[in-house]
Design a protein that fits this description.
The protein has 243 residues and is α/β, with parallel strands linked by helices. It has six helices and ten strands; from the N terminus they run βββαβααβαββββαβα. Strands 4-1-5-9-6-10 form a six-stranded mixed beta sheet, sandwiched between helices. α1 packs across α4. The longest helix has 16 residues. It is globular and about 55 Å long.
């Protein structure tokens, strides 16, 4: 069984310039994902054959990744390194490149998002098991319990111009606690079976997706304030777990 672990990051970033290699704690942001990927590979010895790869258009990101033991000759195509480029074509391109270079076929792909590094090897091990145990599932992604619930306290404008709940509460439900459970995708990691890429799925949310609920804090870095918050948590050891 072969597993490809992808770490993807383009050179340009408008929200947080240079965020993929910006120092947080005592190392560049990308280093957290590289180190977790390596630890996960060690945990998989005897279970499957993992390969770690990097997808980037940036020579600077390549140099930083190489300092932490991740080297590649792959170059992400320019059309896949724009603000509007989707993630799935990026994964397919590097998957096909690695298979051609190594003359093997990967059974699974794990994508670790650089900007959402608050994950553990235990998270990855448990999530991988969940996906393997469901023969019909196509993929799995990490989530956290949502702070807001579309059945109870999220609204949108309706056809009349007024505002109503995003989703209608089931009959008899009158409290947030009783409303259906919903989750936030935290963008930390995505497991895919090979069959996912042979389907017609256009996004990571497929007709047969599973989730792994993080038992700890995890969030994505979208705005500068997110970076400051994560930096505080890491430097002051406030996460409650070891990265």
């Amino acid at each position: 069984m072969n597993l490809l672990i992808t770490i993807c990051g383009r050179g340009g970033s408008k929200g947080i310039p240079g965020k993929n290699i910006r120092t947080i704690g005592d190392k560049p942001l990308i280093a957290y994902s590289i180190e977790t990927a390596k630890k996960f590979c060690e945990a998989l010895v005897g279970v499957c054959s993992p390969t770690i790869t990097l997808s980037t258009d940036s020579e600077e990101i390549k140099k930083v990744a190489a300092q932490f033991g991740l080297q590649t000759n792959y170059v992400r195509p320019a059309e896949m390194a724009t603000d509007t480029a989707g993630k799935l074509p990026v994964l397919v391109d590097v998957l096909n490149w690695e298979e051609k270079q190594r003359n093997i076929r990967f059974d699974f792909l794990l994508d670790l998002d650089i900007t959402s590094p608050l994950r553990t090897v235990e998270d990855l091990e448990k999530a991988f098991q969940i996906l393997q145990q469901d023969e019909n599932a196509l993929n799995l992604f990490s989530v956290n319990p949502a702070h807001r619930n579309p059945y109870f306290n999220m609204v949108e404008q309706n056809d009349s111009g007024y505002y109503s709940l995003v989703k209608k509460l089931p009959d008899g439900v009158v409290t947030r606690q009783a409303a259906p459970k919903v989750y936030d995708m935290n963008a930390s990691f995505y497991f895919y079976k090979r069959s996912f890429f042979e389907s017609s799925c256009k996004t990571a949310i497929s007709p047969k997706s599973l989730i792994y609920v993080m038992p700890h804090l995890c969030f994505d870095l979208d705005e500068p304030v997110d970076f400051l918050f994560m930096e505080y948590l890491i430097e002051n050891k406030k996460l409650g777990f070891e990265l």
